[in-house]
Amino acid sequence: MSDIKKPGMSRRGLLKAGAVGGLVAATPSIFIKDAWAQEFRNDPKNTGELKLGFNVPQSGPYADEGADELRAYMLAVKHLNGEGDGGMLNTFKPSMLSGNGVLGKKVTYATGDTQTKSDAARASAKRMIEKDGVLMVTGGSSSGVAVAVQSLCQEQGIIFMAGLTHSNDTTGKDKRRYGFRHFFNAYMSGAALAPVLNKEYGSDRRAYHLTADYTWGWTQEESIKNSTEALGWQTVNAVKTPVGAGDFSQYITPVLNSGADVLILNHYGKDMINSLSQAVQFGLRDKQVNGKNFEIVVPLFSRLMAQGAGDAIKGILGTTNWNWSLQDEGSKAFVQSFGAEYGAPPSMAAHTCYVQTLLYANACEMAGTFYPPEVIKQLEGFNFDGMGNGPTLYRAEDHQCFKDVLVVRGNENPSSQFDLLKVVDVTPRAQVEYDWTIFGGSLGPYEVKM
Amino acid sequence: MTNTKKLLLNDTFVVIIFAAAILAMPIWLDPIGGNYPDLLQKFAIYGIFAIGFNILFGLTGYLSFGHAAFLGVGSYAAVWSFKLLTMNVIPAVIFGVLFAGILAAVIGFLSLRRTGIYFSILTLAFAQMSYNLAYSVLTPITNGETGLQLARSDPRILDRLFSQEQAAGLPSTDLFGETMSGYPGFYFCAVLLIVCFYISMRIFRSPFGLMLKGIKSNQNRMRYTGLNTRPYMLTAFIISGMYAGLAGSLLAVTDPLAGAERMQWTASGEVVLMTILGGAGTLVGPMLGAGLIKYFENIFSAFDDNVLTQAFSFLPDSVLEFVVPVVGLFVGSGWHLTLGLLFMVIVIFLPGGLVEGFRRIYDYFKSGGGNAKTQSVEARNQAGE
Q1: Spelled out in words, what is the top-level CATH class assigned to the domain A187-320?
Q2: What are the chain A neighbours of B135 within 8 Å (beta carbons)?
């Protein structure tokens, strides 16, 4: 085989040798180019365009949320560029956004698929940063992904505006200077849910947890356990289930004989749809245990999941970050323009992603530059209103937003296919606030060396 | 005598050309949008993975469906080395290779008792076991779904010995002061790829390699001559596993995070695809296959309707409205579809993979477009059954 190849090889070899020579000559210039051009990574300079990276799950168990997030991002880009009806740009205050792009630059975007896997999410974020030259990365529907991408962004000196991520770790032990979260977290869910659970189900209950086996599941289980045990509940057992398991029957059968009278499902996305549907099919909700009705609680609820689970969600309690039925100006404006664009109301994932994009754009306007450390300083401690959750604070110490939390119940008599969640209680912000030091972690530096 | 000398000279030449092509990747990949550090690193790393896989599959014909396990073990070992010892990449790479080698010895010892489909299923079972262990049972070691990551509070014993003060942020992986992300990371992987390529070539040419080829063509006959083939098989399996471990540790070097999904059966299947796509049993084939798949995964998957509309903007609007959604099915999240079609075409028409395709083209031109058949039949590689 090598005999046949030989004559051709030498000709090609000559060409290749030439190419190596070229590389050797070009190598210094490659490095020098980067060294001098970069006051900070991906500076848009005089291009007239600003590129954002939308990294959302387009496949895997959270793909529904990802699709809705992407819709929200495209809507946000439209509104920032002055197309469409402007949505929350009209209600967001204090805002410097005028629908004229950001700092006079037109907003464009690149998209990527996280596949809800840390590896794939980091690879696609890296691609957007290194190849597409995005100035900010946002999105994701899983805390595992958020934590992984956030630490990547810290290393790269790119701001990360987290999408849907509910783990305490994202702004707790894994918080980063370059990462920001608008979404609420598991601690807040626990704090908001506990009083309602106490009122509805009493203080003498035995709870059984099924928990998605990753950072979000772990912290949510911990937070819900803490707040329910403070009510006087007992925790019978807590079982970890793999993400994307599909079939949960093997985990649900033991619940029947465990002596528990409440099942808490720390699941999300398609996992929650499957586990809840199966739990209902197994007749858990028709059972009487310890002389009480058996109840199911889903601490983190979303309308998209409710849609997937169908009748199974009727009467189930949970918390959400936001719901489209809210009647404040910001929510109404957002629902209206989202509905006009896509023919369906936005999910809470879409809401948080839309808001995050606007907040980032506004911080750039306020800073007067895209230089990340200055933008970060504008976001830290930023107080705003008109984005659907009432007066909200971006806490400087851990980059967590503080706002009212909604406790919802699966609607017994929905008036439309989207009217699936009924707001039971709006827990005021003061009730879900906590001392940022309880979760440890540190933000890290403002300046990142290139 | 003269013949072997000529061959040796030729081999050196092949390595030099290979090295030149690899090191020049930032230049010739630039026009097709492949010139950014993350993708270049992936090319080099998965090239190592595929070359290693080919030592087993290409030479002995044993199809392992569990190579991702070694990749994952390499990654975990490397990240733990970063966490416990030092951010220097040398110990990380050594531990990655070592642990993958140990695991390969165990799995190989058990699996190689069977041949053919039974061997494949056994390796698949072991890899799935490793995956599930990493995913849920061994979470204290692997951190499960979230993935194993560095923390500021990690001990890093060796680093602490030499410097007392601690950086404000997370430290990054380095090779004696040179940070291992971006282009330097690529060159580090590229050098290792070239070394691996050289070793693999020496194995192909060695008596040991001949023995493995003998096993592939007729193992029974080898046994009748009084030869025990098991030790040879096991050695090939371990070497192959160590290559995978090296690739895994390099994944952690360029991006210090190890996720369990690296061990999933899809990752094992991917390397099989790479090898067959490029040409099993050839030297450069697996590397080509790895490059092609990674290129598809990273570039094709990023095309969205925006990019397509721009690409086809020369068409009139009415045609555009029709073309963009149809092409859109095959790019973006549909890139697997394109890859599947390509794979089918190659397996049906070019059983020897891309390398066979190139050879056919080469022969065609060499013989002036005429009767190239007689030569190419002899030169063609046999597809790995």
Answers
A1: alpha beta
A2: 213, 242
Cite the residue boundaries of each domain of chain A with CATH code 3.40.50.2300. Answer: 49-184+324-402, 187-320
What is the number of H-type helices and E-type strands within chain B? 18, 4
Residue B380: inside a domain: no
Report the C-alpha gap between A376 and A388 in whole angstroms.
Answer: 23
Residue B125 is part of which domain span?
Answer: 36-267
Q: Read off the pTM.
A: 0.84
CA separation for the pair A177, A181 (Å, rounded): 11
Within chain A, how many helices (H) and strands (E) appear? 13, 17
Residues of A within 8 A of B333 (CB-CB) are 58-59, 113
Judged on CB neighbours under 10 Å (0-12, 13-18, 19+), A434 is middle
pLDDT on residue A226: 93
**Which residues, in sequence order, are bridge partners of residue A319?**
A300, A407
CATH architecture, domain defined by A49-184+324-402: 3-Layer(aba) Sandwich (3.40)
Q: Answer whether B26 touches A (CB < 8 Å).
A: yes
Confidence of residue A428 (pLDDT cuts 50, 70, 90): very high
In-domain check, residue B384: no
Q: Residue B334: inside a domain, yes or no?
A: no
Please report the ipTM that was assigned to this predicted complex. 0.79
Query: B194-247 pLDDT, tens per residue?
Result: 999 999 999 999 999 999 999 988 888 888 998 899 999 999 999 999 999 999
Q: CA–CA separation, B109 vs B128, rounded Å?
A: 17
Handedness of CA A63, A64, A67, A68 (dihedral sign): negative
The pLDDT tens digits for A167-197 are 999 999 889 999 999 999 999 999 999 999 9
How many structural domains are present in chain B?
Answer: 1
A137 at B interface, C-beta within 8 A: no
Q: A117 and B168 in contact by Cβ < 8 A?
A: no
The answer to whether A266 faces chain B, any CB pair under 8 Å, is no
DSSP 3-state assignment of A442? coil
pLDDT band at residue A209 under the 50/70/90 scheme: very high
CA separation, residue A367 to residues A289, A395, A449 (Å): 59, 18, 21
CB proximity B364 to A under 8 Å? no
Q: Cβ of A412: how many Cβ atoms within 10 Å?
A: 9
Q: Is the dihedral of CA A49, A55, A56, A59 positive or negative?
A: positive
pLDDT at B92: 94
Which residues from chain B sit within 8 angstroms of residue A14, using beta carbons? none
**Pick from A360, A358, A331, A362: which is nearest to A347 by CA?**
A331
DSSP letters, B32-68, are TT--SHHHHHHHHHHHHHHHHHHHHHHHH----S-HH
Give a yes or no: residue B196 inside a domain: yes
